[in-house]
Amino acid sequence: MRIVVAMRQLADLVEELEVDDSGTDIDREFVKFVSNEWDEAALEEALLIKEQSGAEIVAVALDEPDVDQTLYTAIAKGADKAVKLTGLEEGWVSTHSRAKAIASWLGDQQWDLLLTGVQAADDLDGQLAGILAAQLQVPHAAVVVSAQTEGSSVKVSQELGGGTIVEETIALPAVLGIQTARQAPRYAPITRIRQAMQSGGLEEASVAGDLAEGRPTVRRLYPPEKTGHAEMLTGSASDVADKIIELLRAKGLVKS
After folding, report:
1. I need a surface site. Which of 37, 77, 116, 225 has the fewest CB within 10 A?
2. Per-domain residue ranges for the chain?
């Protein structure tokens, strides 16, 4: 079995982000980029499947800032190979373009299961798994919290609204959007990451420029506007409660 894990880079939200001169993207020159946390969960779930079934794992990502570090880390954790897709435009890449780039590369590959994070912090639309499945014309499941392969199928657990967990069996090949892995993502020591770098296990593959038609475009970004201030309330719990009620009444949010 061959499992492909699609990963991506995001601006580190700990950093102070600024809008660039174009007004349509963040200023990426001095920002640190890190791996998407949901993709890390997808990688961990793939590694758990590998430990149970001996599957081969291939990590794949677009050529984005600091992506080499993420891909080498995936190898250090246990992925068998990592592939960097080049040829797309720089800057923010829409989910549709990302999906079409990955799907176009997969068209020449043999694979059984494709895992990706259920969403990413820079769009939160949660559509990548579904769009990939549509492009590849295979079944998919999203918000997956457990995946275990059973011959030519995969048994998945999904978390629905209100914390309800449902289980279903999906025929392979399939695409899964991983919400969380069965255990926390493992740590890769820096020595193992350096060993992966020295081994030269990172491959490159070119994909066409902008593969998505009708993709959404960013018209304008704005930094958060400061419209008010914080007021610190002191005193006993009863005094603070009375002050909160007074503030709510003053704003007309509660009746007297």
Report:
1. 225
2. 2-206
Could you read off the pLDDT of 102-122 as tens digits, one per residue?
A: 999 999 899 999 999 999 988
- β 9-11/140-150 pair status: unpaired
In this prediction, the residues of the chain whose per-residue pLDDT falls under 50 are: none
Q: Does domain 2-206 have CATH number 3.40.50.620?
A: yes
Which two tokens mark 216?
């959404």
Residue 30, classed as helix, strand or coil, is coil
Q: How confident is the model over 180-211, as pLDDT tens digits?
A: 999 999 999 999 999 999 987 799 999 976 66
3-class DSSP state of 195: helix
Q: What is the rounded CA–CA span in Å between residue 133 and residue 115?
A: 11
Q: Which residue has the tokens 């174009």?
A: 22
Identity (one letter) of the amino acid at 237? A
- The H or E element containing residue 35 is strand 33-35
CA distances, 243 to each of 205, 236, 249 (Å): 62, 11, 10
